Amino acid sequence: MTPQRETIFARGEVLVAGAAGQGEALVLTAPISFWGGVDPASGRIADVRHPQYGLTIAGKVLFLPGTIGSSSASAVLLELVHSGHEPAAIVLHEPDAILLLGLIVAREMGWETPMAVKLERERFEAFRGLMTRVGDDGVISA
Questions:
Q1: Is residue 38 within 8 Å of residue 83, measured between CB atoms?
Q2: Which of these is catalytic: 42, 70, 72, 83?
Q3: Where residue 109 falls among pLDDT bands split at 50, 70, 90?
Q4: What per-residue confidence (pLDDT) applies to 46?
C-alpha cells in the first residue's frame, strides 16, 4: 500500500478574481519577461536564457518569483487567454500591475480568466510538480 501524502494548504491574497484553476505546479526558478519570454500562441517559455526554456505555462498553476518589466506583458497575457494557452492560475510573489492588467482586460471582454493570487515566495517550493488547485477564495492546495 502506498503511503498517503499530507495535503499542503496556503492562503493567498486574491489579486485578480477569476475561475478557480487546477494543474501541475510550475515553479519558475527565475523571473521572466512575458514580452519575448513567453510565446502567446503556444504558452511555451521562449526565452532561451530562462532556466525553464521550452516548458509550457499553459494549463499549469504558474508560480512566478518575479517578472522582468515590459509594458507589453499585459498584451501577451491577454493573447494567452484569447488563444486558450493561459495558465490555470497565477501565483505571484509580488503584484505586477502591468501583467495583471491583461487578466482584467480579458475579463472585461467577457473571457474566462484564471485566478491571480499573491503568496510569500518561500511557500512556492512546497508545491513544485504537484497537482495544485487555486480556489476562487485564494486557497492554494496540493
A1: no
A2: 70
A3: very high
A4: 97
The region, left, alpha or beta by phi > 0 then psi within -120 to 50, assigned to residue 109 is alpha
71 classed as catalytic: no
The pLDDT tens digits for 26-65 are: 999 999 999 999 999 999 999 999 999 999 999 999 999 9
Tens of pLDDT, residues 121-131: 999 999 999 99
Q: Which residue in this structure is represented by grid cell 499542503?
A: 8
Spatial CA neighbour of 25 closest among 137, 115, 142, 118: 142
Q: Are strands 61-64 and 21-27 parallel, antiparallel or unpaired?
A: parallel
Cα torsion 81, 137, 24, 45: sign: positive
20: CB partners within 8 A, 6+ apart: 89, 115, 133, 134, 135, 136
Point out which residues pair with 25 in neighbouring strands.
61
Amino acid in position 32: I
131 SS3 class: strand
For residue 47, the number of C-alpha atoms closer than 13 Å in the C-beta half-sphere is 17
13-141 maps to which CATH number? 3.50.30.10
Question: How much is the pTM?
Answer: 0.94
